[in-house]
TrEMBL record:
Residues 3-249 form the NAD-dependent epimerase/dehydratase domain. It is an enzyme of class 5 (isomerase). InterPro entries: Epimerase_deHydtase, NAD(P)-bd_dom_sf, UDP_G4E. Its EC number is 5.1.3.2. It comes from Antiquaquibacter soli. GO terms for molecular function: UDP-glucose 4-epimerase activity. SUPFAM superfamilies: NAD(P)-binding Rossmann-fold domains. This is UDP-glucose 4-epimerase. Its cofactor is NAD(+).
Amino acid sequence: MTWLVTGGAGYIGSHVVRALGAAGLPSVVLDDLSSGHESFVPGDVPFVRGSILDGSLLLQVLEDHRITGVIHVAGFKYAGVSVTQPLHTYEQNVTGTQRLLAAMESHGVDRIVFSSSAAVYGTPDTDLVTEQTPKNPQSPYGESKLIGEWLLRDQAVARGLRHTSLRYFNVVGSGDASLYDSSPHNLLPLVFTALVEGRTPRINGNDYPTPDGTNVRDYIHVSDLALAHVVAAQRLDAGDELEPAYNLGSGSGSSVGEIMATVAEVTGIPFTPEIAPRRPGDPARIVAAGDLAARDLDWRMRHSLREMVETQWIATRGAAQPSE
């Protein structure tokens, strides 16, 4: 049972690869390194540099490594940027997924775990998102993820594909000091960079109807997320029936103010965040309920907020150190 991890050299994908190894499941990584790092791939895991847009390469990888299932993490993940680069977003996330599914069909690979996103919900009317919450993506990125789920659904009807999709909001932390989040758009990398450069991090609005006036969002540890992908893969291997999609959420969330206070405590760099105006359309609170995933995928929050921040800070500082 060998699993292909697309995007396995990225921040999330590399944690999935390590979780597979810890569970005794062999894997192969396919990554074009557009945002990943070859150094993130363990030395005993085969690595193929290439794109999921390359149909011939996909066929070769599936055949050469006798792949039995796919954990599909690869994609263009920047929601804000996707608004100005919609064609690129759709090519990477929709066309890429279509070509992957076509290659899987050709080789009889019939199981896939899709790394989706809570962006499929857009800005919902409820502050607690469930899998039944209406889908209303508000960026090409969110739309592309929803289309990816539709592709899996339709391929299941047409060819018996066995699948599930995992939806989540903000991923933080590190399960290995050598693995760090290098995204220029995610909250903690932005905050850490500002502090290291002597700038003051910013909060957009502190007058929301929340306990401390700042937005409340879901933050989940990357290792917990990776483990859920592996359990989903194991259950597909076992022939179990899974829901078409699961939310991986805390059910309660953390405020941006809490994040900032925890960052100051962990880093030892005292600061008072600058308060900027609210961003248009930003809801006060959005978190996801993880009840179905808890039932079927052993999903739970295994890390505290402090552990999330602390592990990411350690990894970030390690990445910033010059190599010997």
